[in-house]
Specification:
By secondary structure, the chain is mostly helical. Keywords: Membrane, Transmembrane, Transmembrane helix.
């Protein structure tokens, strides 16, 4: 079974008071999961906002005027990706403001989890593009810049997607064998 951003935690779908070792109602579980999503958002959102702030300032530096057309276009794409990442990572807070008091916390948690996943993907793309622009400018070697940027994006894919997927598969295998 593949993992999605809104996959319930193990034992979260038991319909009762949580999994083994947890005695929580569905509403308490939703509250706990919402707090977990908020903690994740705080980490990712801070990084996205700092990166976006630095990206915005680049346009006001003397070196920006000397960028070629590819690098200027890459910068524009990077800034747009950074703005989208920041907005997407902030969106769960807006959702909460609109939905608070309407007894929709489980739906809020599912939606927020998806948005965090999209926001992280946008953040990874922002970092990759920013790194490519930086390395093209700093090294003057476009080929090296592409290779190094691709290697970093490969590391992101490994540490953000592959390793968690492997841990999940191993845990699922242990549950079925044990």
């Amino acid at each position: 079974m593949g993992h999605t951003w809104d996959t319930p935690e193990p034992h979260d779908d038991d319909g009762g008071g949580g999994g083994p070792g947890r005695d929580e109602t569905p509403q308490e579980r939703a509250d706990r999961r919402w707090n977990e999503v908020l903690q994740e958002v705080r980490v990712a959102q801070t990084g996205a906002q700092i990166l976006f702030g630095f990206l915005v300032s680049v346009a006001f530096t003397p070196v920006f005027a000397r960028l070629g057309s590819f690098d200027t276009d890459l910068y524009v794409v990077t800034v747009i990706l950074g703005a989208c990442a920041t907005g997407t990572l902030i969106a769960p807070v807006c959702f909460h403001r609109f939905l608070a008091g309407h007894n929709l916390k489980p739906a809020l948690v599912r939606t927020a989890s998806r948005m965090v996943g999209v926001g992280l993907a946008l953040l990874a793309l922002t970092i990759g593009c920013a790194l490519l622009l930086l390395l093209r400018t700093a090294t003057g070697n476009p080929t090296l810049a592409w290779i190094l940027s691709a290697a970093v994006m490969g590391w992101f894919a490994t540490s953000w997607l592959l390793l968690p997927h492997l841990v999940l598969r191993r845990a699922e295998r242990s549950r079925t064998e044990g």
